[in-house]
């Protein structure tokens, strides 16, 4: 398992907890709103937990794009790189 795979699985657990799902229920491309009935408060909570766990701040302006686990993981990677 690569570091990216490990991070994705950690992120899956984090997001699943916020969405009150089992991690195995959360698909990489499942839409948080349409498939898991998430709302904007849960999306903000996901960003807050990412900030706390990874010390990476993803701007709330990106929330409309962060509708899947894969999109959140891509944003985490992108902003981690910017942080250095």
Automatic annotation (TrEMBL):
Protein name as catalogued: Acyl carrier protein
Lineage: superkingdom: Bacteria
Pfam families: PP-binding
Origin organism lineage: Bacteria, Bacillati, Actinomycetota, Actinomycetes, Pseudonocardiales
Carrier domain: residues covered: 5-80
Protein source organism: Amycolatopsis umgeniensis
